[in-house]
Automatic annotation (TrEMBL):
<keyword id="KW-0067">ATP-binding</keyword>
<dbReference type="InterPro" id="IPR027417">
    <property type="entry name" value="P-loop_NTPase"/>
</dbReference>
<keyword id="KW-1003">Cell membrane</keyword>
<keyword id="KW-0812">Transmembrane</keyword>
<feature type="region of interest" description="Disordered">
    <location>
        <begin position="1"/>
        <end position="27"/>
    </location>
</feature>
<feature type="domain" description="AAA">
    <location>
        <begin position="561"/>
        <end position="718"/>
    </location>
</feature>
<keyword id="KW-0997">Cell inner membrane</keyword>
<keyword id="KW-0547">Nucleotide-binding</keyword>
<dbReference type="InterPro" id="IPR050445">
    <property type="entry name" value="Bact_polysacc_biosynth/exp"/>
</dbReference>
<feature type="domain" description="Polysaccharide chain length determinant N-terminal">
    <location>
        <begin position="45"/>
        <end position="128"/>
    </location>
</feature>
<keyword id="KW-1133">Transmembrane helix</keyword>
<protein>
    <recommendedName>
        <fullName>non-specific protein-tyrosine kinase</fullName>
        <ecNumber>2.7.10.2</ecNumber>
    </recommendedName>
</protein>
<dbReference type="InterPro" id="IPR025669">
    <property type="entry name" value="AAA_dom"/>
</dbReference>
<dbReference type="Pfam" id="PF02706">
    <property type="entry name" value="Wzz"/>
</dbReference>
<dbReference type="InterPro" id="IPR005702">
    <property type="entry name" value="Wzc-like_C"/>
</dbReference>
<feature type="transmembrane region" description="Helical">
    <location>
        <begin position="52"/>
        <end position="70"/>
    </location>
</feature>
<comment type="similarity">
    <text>Belongs to the etk/wzc family.</text>
</comment>
Length: 757
C-alpha cells in the first residue's frame, strides 16, 4: 500500500545502517501462510480505513441502479412454437412447382431469416395496425418529463451538431420512413431462434402489454403459415399461365418444323439418308489423313536429322560426330585412318623433329585425308537435303488430296446435314410440347392439395409475469459493480496518499528517531492546552508524558534545557503541542517557561487565556524588563512569555544577541525552556531559533503533511544547525492509525481502556 511504501526502503543515515552486515535484520521470510495472513490484514485494514468511501459508492451506485430499474417499463414476453414438417405428403407422386422444404440446418436458418425480415414484419404491422400504437410509433408518445429528458445523453448534443439530411423528401417517402421506423421497433422486440437440434422454431415477442405480446406472437405464426401457402399458390398460378402460353407457341412450332422437313426432303429428293456414300467418303478421309500424318512425321524427322548433321559438321569434332550419328562405315574408316596418321605424326615429331621429310609426308597425307572426309560429309548433307525436299513434296501432295476429299464430303453431306437439322428441330419441338402438356396437367391436378411446410405446435399464452427488467439481477450487479468501484477508488486514494501515517515511516525515510504520536482530542474537548489538564489520564496527556520521558532519556545530565517545537508548514499543531507539553512539565514539578517565538501569528496567549499586552517583542526591543512580561498559569504554575507587540522585523529580533542572552538567563532559572517556533518553510525565524535551541522536536501532522514538505522542513532545520532530537506526529486518529500494519499501529487505541478520554 502507498502508506507503507517507505517501510520497504532501506534505512538511511541511521546508526544501524552504518554498523555493517552483522547488524542487518534477519532475511525475508518465505512462510507463505504468514505472507497470506499479512496480505489479508493489509486488505482488511484498507477496507476499514476507507469504509465510508466504499459505503458511499455502494449506496449511491445501488441507489441509482434501483431508481433506473424501477423507472424502466416492464416488458412481457410471449412465445409461440412452430414446427417445420419433416413428413411429406405422397398422395401425388410427381414433383410440385415449389419443392417441399428440406428441414436441415440451412433450411431452418433460412426460415428464421424470413421471420426476422422487414418484409414479414411489415405484414404484421399492417395486419394489427401497429402504426397507431404508441408503443411502436414514437411520434404518438407523450413527451417525457423534463428531468428524464435532461438525463438522456442524446439531448446533450446541440441541435447544430446533429447531422440532418439535406435531401428533400416527398410525402410518400416521409410516410415510408415512418413505416420503416415502426417496422424496426417491432423487429427489435422480436426474437426468433431454433430450438436446439429439433425442427421447432421459437418466436417470442416483448411488449409492455401482456395481451399484446401474445397477440403479436400468434399473429406472426399465422401469417408465416399463410405466407407459405400464398407463395405456393402464386408460384403455381404463375407456372400455369406460363405453361399455357408456351403450349400455344410450341404447338405452332412443332407443326411448322414438321412441314419444313417434308418440304426439304421433297426439294432435295432425300427420301432416305445416303449412309453408304457417307461411309465411303469417311473412310477415304480417314486413310488420307493417316497418310498425311505419316508424311508430315517423316518430313519432320528428315529436317531434324539434317539440322543435327549440319550442326555436328560445324562442331569441333566434325566428321567424327557425323560418323557416330549416321553410322556411316566410310566416314568411320576414314576417321580411323585419320587417328592413325595423327599418331604417326606424333611419333615422327618426337623421333625426327619438326622438319623431317617423313613428317612432312605424313602431314600431307593427313591433310588429304581430312579433305576427303569433308567432301564425303558434304555429300551426306546434300543427300539429306534432297530427302527433306522429297518429304515436303509428298506432304503437300497428300494435303491437297485431303482438302479435295473434305470438300467433296461437305458437298455430299450438305443436304443431309440440313435435313438432320430440320428433323432435330421438329423432334425437339414435339418433345417439349408433350412434356409441357403433361406438366400442365400435373400442376392442375395438385393445385387444390397445397399445404404449408410448417404448423403451430404451441400458441403463445398471455404472460403473467414480466420478463424484463430483472430487478433482482440489476440490483445484484449494481451492488457488485459499485462495491468493486468503491474498492478501486479506495485503492486509488490509498495510492495517492502523500502524507506520513506512522513515525516508523518517517524514521525509515530520514533516519530521525520517533518520539511517539499525539492523539487527536475529541471534537468538543476544548484546546489541547486545557485538555491535558482537564484529562490528566487521557491518551493525549499520556502522549505528553511519553514525550517528556523521551526527552529526559535523551538528556540524562540535564544540560539541554532549551527545547524548540518546530514544523514545516502552519496548521500542524506545533503551538498546541508546545503549550500542552509545557503544562505537563510544570505539573510534574519542573520549573518550566513557555516562550511564544511566533511573532507573526501570536496564538499561545489565546490558548492559555492570558493577555498579550507586553511580551517577547518588548523584551528584545529593550522597552520592558523580563520580570515584567512573565505571566504565571494559575492551573499549573507554568511561566509564560507571550509574543507581545513589536515594531521591528521578527527575524531581526529573534536573530539578535538579545535573544541569545535571554535564553542564557532563562537557562539559569528554569529546568525547561519551551520555545514555540514559526514554521521553517514559511519564514526564516524558525531556522534562527533552531540554531539557538539545545533540542528541536520536529512536528509532523499525521496523514496531512506531504512527505516531501516534511522532509524539506527537516532538512532546513538540520542545515540551520538545529539538534533534532526526534519527530512527533500530531493530531493522530488513533482508530484509523490502528488499522495500518505498522510497528506502532494500535498504540493508545488498542489500550483505550487504560485512558479516560
Amino acid at each position: 500500500m502507498a502508506t507503507q511504501e517507505l517501510q520497504e526502503q532501506p534505512r538511511r543515515n541511521t546508526p544501524e545502517s552504518r554498523r555493517g552486515p552483522s547488524s542487518v535484520s534477519p532475511g525475508i521470510s518465505y512462510d507463505l501462510s504468514a505472507s497470506a495472513a499479512s496480505a489479508v490484514r493489509r486488505t482488511t485494514g484498507l477496507l476499514r480505513r476507507h469504509k465510508l468511501l466504499i459505503g458511499t459508492v455502494i449506496v449511491v451506485g445501488t441507489g441509482l441502479a434501483t431508481l433506473v430499474a424501477f423507472r424502466m417499463t416492464p416488458l412481457y414476453t410471449a412465445e409461440t412454437l412452430i414446427m417445420v414438417e419433416h413428413r411429406k405428403n405422397t398422395v401425388l407422386n410427381f414433383e410440385g412447382v415449389v419443392s417441399d422444404m428440406t428441414p436441415d440446418i440451412s433450411a431452418l436458418q433460412s426460415e428464421v431469416a424470413i421471420l426476422k425480415s422487414p418484409a414479414f414484419a411489415e405484414k404484421v404491422v399492417a395486419k394489427l395496425k401497429l402504426m397507431n400504437d404508441p408503443e411502436f410509433n414514437a411520434s404518438l408518445r407523450p413527451p417525457p418529463p423534463g428531468w428524464v429528458s435532461a438525463l438522456n445523453p442524446r439531448n446533450w448534443i446541440p441541435d447544430s451538431w446533429k447531422q440532418s439530411s439535406s435531401v428533400p423528401l416527398s410525402p410518400e417517402e416521409v410516410e415510408r420512413n415512418h413505416l420503416t421506423s415502426v417496422v424496426n421497433a417491432v423487429l427489435d422486440n422480436t426474437s426468433v431462434r431454433p430450438q436446439g437440434r429439433s425442427y421447432v422454431i421459437a418466436v417470442s415477442f416483448d411488449s409492455e402489454d401482456p395481451r399484446k405480446s401474445s397477440l403479436i406472437a400468434n399473429t406472426m405464426a399465422d401469417l408465416y403459415l399463410v405466407d407459405q401457402l400464398d407463395e405456393k399458390f402464386k408460384a403455381s398460378k404463375r407456372a400455369t399461365q406460363w405453361l399455357e402460353e408456351r403450349l400455344t407457341d410450341l404447338r405452332k412450332e412443332a407443326q411448322t418444323t414438321g412441314d419444313a422437313v417434308e418440304k426439304y426432303r421433297t426439294q432435295h429428293g432425300l427420301t432416305t439418308s445416303s449412309n453408304n456414300e457417307s461411309t465411303v467418303v469417311g473412310q477415304q478421309l480417314s486413310q488420307l489423313n493417316a497418310d498425311y500424318i505419316l508424311a508430315r512425321t517423316k518430313r519432320q524427322e528428315a529436317e531434324t536429322k539434317l539440322r543435327d548433321v549440319t550442326a555436328m559438321a560445324n562442331s569441333p569434332r566434325g566428321a567424327s560426330a557425323v560418323g557416330d550419328v549416321l553410322g556411316s562405315p566410310l566416314i568411320q574408316a576414314l576417321r580411323e585412318r585419320e587417328v592413325d596418321l595423327q599418331r604417326q605424326i606424333a611419333d615422327a615429331t618426337n623421333r625426327y623433329g619438326a622438319k623431317h621429310p617423313m613428317l612432312q609426308a605424313l602431314q600431307s597425307q593427313l591433310r588429304d585425308l581430312q579433305g576427303q572426309i569433308k567432301t564425303d560429309v558434304g555429300k551426306i548433307v546434300s543427300n539429306l537435303s534432297n530427302e527433306v525436299e522429297l518429304a515436303k513434296g509428298r506432304e503437300q501432295s497428300l494435303k491437297a488430296s485431303l482438302d479435295q476429299a473434305e470438300s467433296k464430303q461437305n458437298e455430299q453431306q450438305q443436304a443431309t446435314v440440313g435435313l438432320r437439322t430440320l428433323e432435330r428441330d421438329a423432334s425437339t419441338a414435339q418433345s417439349m410440347y408433350e412434356a409441357l402438356l403433361t406438366r400442365s396437367q400435373q400442376i392442375a391436378a395438385q393445385t387444390d392439395m397445397r399445404q404449408p411446410d410448417a404448423r403451430v405446435v404451441s400458441e403463445a399464452s398471455i404472460p403473467l409475469d414480466p420478463s424484463q427488467p430483472n430487478r433482482k439481477l440489476i440490483l445484484l450487479m449494481a451492488l457488485v459493480a459499485s462495491g468493486t468501484l468503491g474498492v478501486l477508488l479506495a485503492m486509488l486514494r490509498e495510492r495517492s496518499d502523500g502524507g506520513f501515517r506512522s513515525p516508523h515511516q518517517f524514521e525509515t525515510a530520514t533516519g530521525v528517531r520517533s518520539l511517539g504520536i499525539v492523539p487527536r482530542i475529541p471534537r468538543f474537548g476544548g484546546s489541547p492546552a486545557s485538555y491535558v489538564v482537564d484529562k490528566p489520564v487521557s491518551a493525549f496527556a499520556e502522549s505528553m508524558q511519553n514525550l517528556r520521558t523521551s526527552l529526559l532519556l535523551a538528556n540524562p545530565d540535564g544540560r539541554h534545557r532549551v527545547i524548540l517545537f518546530s514544523s514545516s508548514v502552519p496548521g500542524e499543531g506545533k503551538s498546541s503541542v508546545a503549550a500542552a507539553f509545557a503544562r505537563t512539565c510544570a505539573n510534574a514539578g519542573q520549573r518550566t517557561i513557555l516562550v511564544d517565538c511566533d511573532l507573526r501569528r501570536k496564538s499561545l496567549h489565546e490558548m492559555l487565556g492570558m493577555p498579550n499586552n507586553r511580551g517577547l517583542s518588548e523584551v528584545l526591543a529593550g522597552t520592558a524588563a523580563l520580570e515584567d512580561v512573565i505571566q504565571v498559569d494559575p492551573r499549573t504554575g507554568l511561566h509564560v512569555i507571550v509574543a507581545g507587540h513589536g515594531g521591528s522585523l521578527p527575524q531581526d529580533s529573534l536573530g539578535s544577541s538579545g535573544m541569545h542572552q535571554l535564553l542564557s538567563r532563562l537557562s539559569v532559572n528554569y529546568d525547561r525552556i519551551v520555545l514555540d517556533s514559526p514554521p521553517v518553510l514559511a519564514v526564516s525565524e524558525g531556522k534562527l531559533l533552531a540554531a539557538l535551541a539545545d533540542q528541536t522536536v520536529f512536528i509532523v501532522r499525521w496523514g496531512m503533511t506531504k512527505r516531501g514538505t516534511a522532509m524539506a522542513g527537516l532538512k532546513e532545520v538540520i542545515e540551520a544547525g538545529g539538534e533534532v532530537v526526534g519527530v512527533l506526529f500530531s493530531q493522530v486518529d488513533t482508530r484509523r492509525h490502528a488499522q495500518y500494519e505498522f510497528p506502532d499501529s494500535g498504540r493508545y487505541h488498542g489500550y483505550r481502556r487504560y485512558y479516560a478520554n
